[in-house]
Design brief:
By secondary structure, the protein is mostly helical. It is built from three helices and no strands.
Length: 81
């Protein structure tokens, strides 16, 4: 069984292919860019929610711990660039 790779990673890899028509590669590239944009927006919203929770709890739990408890990785560094 092969390792599963997320769809954004697979799309990024497909943009490097030379056996696909230019319009298909353009569409794949645009889809990859849109996924990246939506992930950034999602992570920003999650960080905002963690900060709001932090303030509501009078700072008793670090925001990174709140995210970890929610099983969110919104505070990790982006290594796909």
């Amino acid at each position: 069984m092969t390792d599963y790779q997320p769809i954004d990673y697979r799309l990024r890899c497909h943009t490097k292919r030379t056996d696909l028509p230019a319009d298909v590669l353009r569409d794949i590239g645009e889809a990859y860019a849109e996924i990246q944009r939506l992930q950034r927006e999602r992570d920003m919203a999650r960080r905002t929610l963690c900060n709001e929770y932090y303030m509501a709890r009078n700072g008793r739990m670090p925001v990174e711990e709140i995210a970890k408890e929610m099983e969110w990785d919104c505070f990790k560094e982006n290594t796909n660039d």
